[in-house]
Design brief:
It is a single chain. The protein is mostly helical. It has helices spanning 3-25, 33-39, 44-55, 59-76. Helix 2 crosses helix 3 (44-55).
């Protein structure tokens, strides 16, 4: 692997890490692909491809996991399902 490709891989890793952090931080507002891609300075098409390559799942699937995880935590923390908001 050349120095340039190693540097490029490091930059891509950092972009995907920033995207994941952004998605975790804003999971309640469910940012769309365009918003997340803009946050890491990529086109939505390039971001979709890179995210899937690096994370092993699509950004949409990752967002669904975050939503499911949040819902599970709310259910666990609530005495009655009627109290959920």
């Amino acid at each position: 692997m050349s120095r340039q490709s190693s540097s490029q891989a490091r930059e891509t890793y950092q972009q995907i890490a920033r995207a994941i952090a952004f998605m975790r931080q804003h999971h309640l507002s469910q940012p769309d692909l365009e918003t997340i891609a803009q946050h890491v300075h990529l086109s939505k098409y390039h971001f979709q491809r890179l995210f899937t390559q690096w994370a092993g799942i699509s950004p949409k699937r990752f967002s669904q996991y975050l939503t499911l995880d949040y819902a599970k935590s709310k259910i666990e923390d609530t005495q009655s399902l009627l109290e959920l908001s």
